[in-house]
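Same chain as my last thread, 475 residues:
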Amino acid sequence: MFDVLIVGGGNAALCAALCAREAGASVLVLESSPREWRGGNSQHTRNLRCMHDAPQDVLIDAYPEEEYWRDLLAVTGGQTNEKLARLVIRASSTCRGWMRKHGVHFQPPLSGALHVARTNAFFMGGGKALINAYYRSAEALGVQIRYDSPVDKLDIQDGRFIAAYTNGERIEARACVLAAGGFESNREWLREAWGQNERGEWPVDNFLIRGTRFNQGVVLKHMFEEHQADKIGDPTQAHMVAIDARAPLYDGGICTRIDCVSLGVVVNRQAERFYDEGEDFWPKRYAIWGRLLANQPEQTAYSIIDSKAVGRFMPPVFPGEKADSLPELAAKLGLDVDMFMQTLNSYNASCKVGTFDHTKLDDCHTEGVTPAKTHWALPLDRPPFYGYALRPGVTFTYQGLLTDETAAVRFNDQPSNNLFVAGEMMAGNVLGKGYTAGIGMSIGTAFGRIAGVNSAKAALGAEHVIPQEADHAAA
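reply #2:
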């Protein structure tokens, strides 16, 4: 029998496995995917949002706790557990040394990296390199790993974990950490959550999944339906961004995101603008655009820029439609040319150009047009013009298991003494809605480490756990 069983194989799961093993526990990881697709959504990540009170290695200036908290509060609209959010924020300031010990390398952000040089530490080689480093370290420490091992059933008695089932095999352990991701790849569950809109559409049928196809939510649904575990979150809330409509159904990752929204205008299928493109810096607003698109006809819109924007954003993997005039661009995008020109002419005439600076909240804004554009409003008047068709890209869902600072799963508001949760399966405790760049990895890293330490204590007894640097996070 293993001391600790980890269900899942992404960032949170591996942080839990490493910390449990460092604490002296024997550990088995069950990853549902084949080896070549291991790592869940973490393989598509780039960075970690980090609190710091002074410049640190790859981070410039300072990003103190209160500013981090205000940023999170703004994107969630207050739908967050402040105690757990601040736990994540503080843990983000101290985890990089531990990550480096397990082979993760950091690099300064690229010059066009969404103005996050102050707030986010970038992984050298991206999320895939981070995942590979963690797997190498886990194997070197003696963690056992099984691929192609989806868990579909758990034996839980009176809130206590007994065993998990994978491929018909029963696996017992003294403690368990659930870190198997959300349900974003389960189209049936998404359809059930979103339903039909007033136009008779099923919005989710036009959603693309930015991450892994293996996040079907099987363990999460089992916990809800078979064990009545305490839940938190709205099933329609998710990390959703605007991505290229030509992106693949699964695993498009970061390169399919369209990052020029704030430098131009966005119109829907009726060629009408529907939201302020310049509301705030893109890292603080990019994750609202997936949901905005979900509410538009056919869940489709178009990001329109002119040549002044070229070179000021990370280009997507697919080139946009290109035209020498706005009417030509509208025709190429399949939009009503007259309506498109009415929208663009109205926008252009409303621009009050001041001192343009896409690195600041500048004074270039619109007047007399609805919706307003509050920053970076320049007329689209310099050919060639570019248009990108957009659809909602779902990264991960927010409905999950209710937990507390110990990462324990709760049943009827009572914490389990040997079943813990980390990562996307509990992110809704911190993210009721909205998103800010890099916080998903902060949540997964903080709660993965806490769950790992506490699962080892549950399995071995606190007096037998080898003290580790990660213990402070679980205190």
